[in-house]
Prior knowledge:
Elements: H1 3-26, H2 39-42, H3 44-57, E1 65-69, E2 77-82, E3 93-99, E4 119-121, E5 124-126, H4 136-149, E6 156-162
Parallel strand pairs: 3-6
Antiparallel strand pairs: 1-2, 2-6, 4-5
Amino acid sequence: MKIQEISAFCDRVWENSILPELIDYIRIPNKSPAFDPDWERHGHMERVVEQFVGWIKRQAIQGLSLEVVRLPERTPLIYIDIPATDPAMQDHSVLLYGHLDKQPEMSGWREDLGPWQPVRNGDRLYGRGGADDGYATFASLLAIKALQQHNIPHARCVVIIEACEE
């Protein structure tokens, strides 16, 4: 395996494609319904779903199918299914999970930081949701994309990103 090549690929995609998305995501105050009972009317959750779906559709991942599941009075769920790339792995599945809702602002932010204002300091990105769990969609698909780009077979991958974990 070409570990350094794969690592460089992942670093490049993370820096050029994923970090800009996370920065935009942090700016959106899409709090969990437990903290924003009017989440649907406010539209923040929908903005994030649209942002994530747009990014997902731009990825060149072989066989990826995407569905946004919507039920009345429930937050949306992003469902991604990617078939195995090796016939020997057809009967195996991997589940990758994350959520895109956020905790409320809360207190304790440093004076130069805030929940909805992304700040990058070296290799750290500050802002609500960037570390819990907004990166899950991007990291999951980057891992699969890296496998495919480097001709490494994988099992079926199911990615579920829901919006009511908090």
